[in-house]
Design goal:
The complex is a heterodimer of chains A (321) and B (256). Chain A has 321 residues and is an alpha/beta fold. Chain A is built from eleven helices and 14 strands. In chain A, the strands form three sheets. Chain A has a six-stranded mixed beta sheet, with helices on both faces. In chain A, helix 6 (179-194) links the parallel strand 7 and strand 8. Chain B is 80% helix and 0% strand. The chains are: A alpha/beta (321), B mainly alpha (256). The structure holds adenosine-5'-triphosphate and magnesium ion (MG).
């Protein structure tokens, strides 16, 4: 039995546009996605802003009722057996919200321990353990309003683990953290699968997904556009190669002309310190460097390089289709 | 058993949060005293000392009601802002068990409003109060707190679904003063208002507090007050499931 199973899961939101002449509008946030996560697996949902990652997670954790399809967590239906599902899952989202700022870190955990029905005898020991795990030991009596972002985030992780859930849902758990803080949270996540937990993780960061996930589903505009191990996804574009050209301001028409070239798979612009970098993925065995440069005749060009595709390139190719 | 513990622990944590909030703190201290002062001035103009005593209890319960109705109204809105509402909903507890201690915590703060108003009257306006039945008086206050918590709970449940409903708390703040006889006896009100007054627990709480202080028989009033309070809780618990389901269908839990 899969730990998490989504079948043709669908969700639309009804919203209104306009202030005076209100018109109902439907947003299709998730358009029939199916996937399965095996017990003990760390599964990544990767996708750009607004792709439907959070919406998918919220349906799985019983916060949203799907408008179509069905989903099971540990074999339990997320709509009809919501309470049973809730007992067995943990939910952590990124950012600074979701903390009672006026309570101490300890009291925050104590409240949720009570809500999750952690037996009174075990609460103290469990909270101490988790404070140790997330590295908040010694700061737990301070009010959470004085915590740094990273500390709040780690408090979140501790909260999500209080009742020792079998399945964890982590929605961008490293967002807004500095590199050191993010690495610590990542190490904690890695240790979760070692302890046998099933984890569903969403992130924008390719390297994070690459480093942590056993399998990844790339979701774009509410649909899954690719699924597989990080290696599979890289292999999808591995036959091609990537040309990077440093440019200093590039016209939209020039970009369109490059995109229209035969043999080009995907084109993206990345902002680096001083310049922009035009990243062009090409099909295997085509040499497009000259052709690309000829379309950039108007603009200043810096360093030019060719390299092997990374997971990030695979991702860009997938979501820009 | 574990539900009782949950009620206790979360009541205590809620209480802590309220007492630590400078904004709520100042609001809770200042506003009721303004109301009380107005009431004292108005009633001092009359010449009967009994009227003044009547008014000072009225002002005290008024302060209590104001703080409960407005804060219970915004309690869910605050959870939305903090981003904690969704976290609460993903726990396996029945949501009413989470909500009830919140409004109970808010109502407890009301006791403080009551005491502050009575002391204010005592020291600034020289209103000497003698409590005829201290034990029954305490019981009447307890009953009033419980019924306010019940009514606040009913408000709060509706706010989970209807985001604009926090206005309702403010909307109910003043009419209740009048309809429940805080300042003027019910007999002054037109007959058609009476059934509304009788359905509202604050009416009976107010009456119980006065009866026990002035030496009447408050027990029936206490009974009616607590009974109605429990009735609100039962209704609230029954609608909680529907309200939450509707919020999960519309996706309004995450909106602020
Ligand atoms: N409560 C809501 N009401 C209306 N529309 C919503 C609501 N929540 C999300 N949406 C819309 O649904 C779509 C998917 O949003 P979702 O939050 O699932 O994306 P996401 O992949 O998590 O994006 P991000 O990476 O920015 O977090 C978006 O177009 C968003 O505007
Ligand atoms: Mg999201």
């Amino acid at each position: 039995m899969a730990a998490i199973e989504a079948a043709e899961l669908r969700r639309t939101y009804k919203t209104h546009t306009g202030t005076f002449r209100r018109r109902a509008k439907e947003i299709e946030a998730v358009r029939g996605i199916s996937f399965a996560v095996e017990p003990g697996e760390l599964f990544g949902l990767l996708g750009p802003n607004g792709a439907g990652k959070t919406t998918t997670i919220k349906m799985l954790i019983t916060l949203l009722i799907p408008t179509g399809g069905s989903a099971r967590v540990l074999g339990l239906d997320v709509v009809h057996q919501a309470r049973e599902v809730r007992k067995r899952i943990g939910y952590v989202f990124g950012g600074e919200r979701g903390v009672y700022e006026r309570l101490s870190g300890y009291d925050n955990l104590r409240y949720f321990a009570e809500l999750y029905g952690v037996p009174a005898r075990e609460q103290k020991r469990r909270i101490e353990e988790l404070l140790e795990l997330v590295g908040l030991k010694g700061r737990e009596q301070e009010r959470a309003e004085g915590y740094s972002r990273g500390m709040k985030q780690r408090l979140h992780v501790a909260r999500g683990l209080l009742h020792d859930p079998e399945v964890l849902f982590l929605d961008e758990p490293t967002i807004g953290l500095d590199p050191v803080g993010a690495r610590e949270v990542r190490a904690t996540i890695a240790s979760l699968t070692e302890a046998g937990k099933t984890v569903l993780l969403t992130t924008h960061y390719m390297f994070e997904a690459d480093a942590l996930c056993d399998r990844i589903a790339v979701i774009s505009k509410g649909s899954i556009v690719a699924e597989g191990t990080p290696l599979d996804l890289k292999r999808g574009v591995a036959q091609g190669s990537v040309v990077e050209v440093e440019v200093f301001g590039i016209a939209d028409e020039a970009l369109e002309r490059v995109r229209a070239l035969g043999g080009v798979v995907a084109v993206a612009i990345e902002e680096r310190e001083q310049a922009q970098v035009l990243v062009v993925q090409t099909e295997p065995d085509v040499e497009l460097t000259q052709a690309i440069l000829s379309h950039l005749n108007g603009s200043d060009v810096g360093r030019i390089s060719r390299r092997e595709p990374t997971l990030e390139d695979a991702y860009v190719a997938l979501v820009s289709e | 058993m574990s539900s009782l513990r949950l009620l206790g622990v979360s009541w205590w944590l809620q209480f802590k949060m309220i007492m630590r909030s400078p904004f709520d703190g100042i609001g809770n201290v200042i506003y009721p005293l303004f109301f009380a002062t107005t009431a004292f001035f108005v009633f001092r103009a009359g010449d009967s000392p009994r009227t003044l005593i009547y008014a000072s209890f009225g002002a005290a319960v008024m302060g209590m009601w104001s703080s409960v109705s407005t804060s219970a109204g915004s309690a869910m809105q605050r959870e939305r802002w903090w981003g904690t509402l969704e976290l609460l909903v993903t726990t396996p507890r029945h949501f009413s068990l989470i909500l009830l201690p919140t409004t109970l915590g808010l109502a407890t703060v009301g006791i403080y409003n009551l005491a502050a108003t009575l002391l204010w009257g005592r020291f600034l306006f020289g209103v000497h109060l003698t409590i005829a039945h201290p034990l029954l008086f305490a019981l009447a206050i307890l009953g009033t707190v419980l019924s306010f918590a019940g009514l606040g709970f009913l408000f709060a449940v509706s706010f989970v679904r209807f985001r604009a409903a926090w206005v309702l708390g403010n909307f109910f703040e003043y009419p209740v003063w009048l309809i429940c006889g805080f300042l003027v006896p019910l007999s002054f009100l037109p007959g058609w208002v009476h059934p509304i007054s009788w359905a509202l627990a604050p009416t009976w709480g107010m009456s119980a507090i006065r009866e026990s202080a002035l030496g009447g028989s408050p027990l029936p009033d206490i009974g009616a007050c607590v009974g109605l309070g429990l009735g609100y809780v039962v209704v609230g618990v029954l609608v909680t499931d529907r309200v939450l389901r509707a919020a999960r269908v519309s996706g309004s839990l995450s909106l602020t």
